């Protein structure tokens, strides 16, 4: 029993560490596929189509008692898919193609910061600058932004240049001329910044949607289905002069598409949902900085990217700011939970007092009823005695 309890306690930690490895695997494979000339939009079309084919039957089986899918709700899912998947994935893949998976993982730690800023802008969060938790979040936000600027704008001297890398070009096909983008750290950072904002905006909209329609798998299934249609239309327009872009020309491209569909859109979502239910959202995002280390190692030794001082400094600054934001978020969450507990205790105390008062009133009524019955019985007895005396006389 004790070993089973220890395993149950350790499982969320193992799951989150595994998820960070899987996430970095997605970006590393996609970078390798794009280096071979794969189109970002085509990979988005195929991967989301595969994910939809997996998630739609799954949602039907696991969420059979879900609410009705109205036309308005389907239109909303279409919008969520556009913001959170189609646009976000295209920006992220373009950013990775211009930079590296390591920079993508570094800037991915800014998502809680973006979410906090957007929540303040849209009125979901109210700033109390005297509160220590608010001060920690504001300070952490500024530190994270500084670290992101350092990682994006400042390369610095190279710390490590690998002499060789693990070959991921599992095909003899060569990339089409002009299909591989030259490294542009700043432009890649801008694309990744914007992708992070899309993720944060999508998280806020998803949270609002789940309150009205609490069936997560169904929502994500229709999101990826919408994204598959959207990206197919956009790709048909942009790639109309090169039909060969739809052709999967290398083994690494096929592996990247299937991996993105199954791991990126299905497995990681399942792990995230399970960990949020077990330990809460703050526990889940606390493991994000681990992705920086994993991505840096994979970019350097697998893709052969050079490790620069600016990336290391920026990553350290972002991690410091990230944990400051998350500490403030945890403190704020505890305050909210304490207020809710106080409200429940106050409500239960009020109910208990009302019940006691009602019980006392009932006891008084019972006593009055008993005394009234007793008086009536005495009066009836006296009347009987008087009637008996009259009869005898």
Automatic annotation (TrEMBL):
<feature type="transmembrane region" description="Helical">
    <location>
        <begin position="217"/>
        <end position="238"/>
    </location>
</feature>
<keyword id="KW-0472">Membrane</keyword>
<comment type="similarity">
    <text>Belongs to the drug/metabolite transporter (DMT) superfamily. Plant drug/metabolite exporter (P-DME) (TC 2.A.7.4) family.</text>
</comment>
<feature type="transmembrane region" description="Helical">
    <location>
        <begin position="185"/>
        <end position="205"/>
    </location>
</feature>
<keyword id="KW-1133">Transmembrane helix</keyword>
<feature type="transmembrane region" description="Helical">
    <location>
        <begin position="136"/>
        <end position="154"/>
    </location>
</feature>
<keyword id="KW-0812">Transmembrane</keyword>
<protein>
    <recommendedName>
        <fullName>WAT1-related protein</fullName>
    </recommendedName>
</protein>
<dbReference type="Pfam" id="PF00892">
    <property type="entry name" value="EamA"/>
</dbReference>
<dbReference type="InterPro" id="IPR030184">
    <property type="entry name" value="WAT1-related"/>
</dbReference>
<feature type="transmembrane region" description="Helical">
    <location>
        <begin position="12"/>
        <end position="34"/>
    </location>
</feature>
<feature type="transmembrane region" description="Helical">
    <location>
        <begin position="102"/>
        <end position="124"/>
    </location>
</feature>
<feature type="transmembrane region" description="Helical">
    <location>
        <begin position="283"/>
        <end position="302"/>
    </location>
</feature>
<feature type="transmembrane region" description="Helical">
    <location>
        <begin position="40"/>
        <end position="62"/>
    </location>
</feature>
<feature type="transmembrane region" description="Helical">
    <location>
        <begin position="308"/>
        <end position="326"/>
    </location>
</feature>
<feature type="transmembrane region" description="Helical">
    <location>
        <begin position="74"/>
        <end position="96"/>
    </location>
</feature>
<dbReference type="InterPro" id="IPR000620">
    <property type="entry name" value="EamA_dom"/>
</dbReference>
<feature type="compositionally biased region" description="Basic and acidic residues">
    <location>
        <begin position="354"/>
        <end position="363"/>
    </location>
</feature>
<dbReference type="InterPro" id="IPR037185">
    <property type="entry name" value="EmrE-like"/>
</dbReference>
<feature type="region of interest" description="Disordered">
    <location>
        <begin position="341"/>
        <end position="393"/>
    </location>
</feature>
<dbReference type="GO" id="GO:0016020">
    <property type="term" value="C:membrane"/>
</dbReference>
<dbReference type="GO" id="GO:0022857">
    <property type="term" value="F:transmembrane transporter activity"/>
</dbReference>
<feature type="domain" description="EamA">
    <location>
        <begin position="24"/>
        <end position="148"/>
    </location>
</feature>
<feature type="transmembrane region" description="Helical">
    <location>
        <begin position="250"/>
        <end position="271"/>
    </location>
</feature>
<feature type="domain" description="EamA">
    <location>
        <begin position="188"/>
        <end position="325"/>
    </location>
</feature>
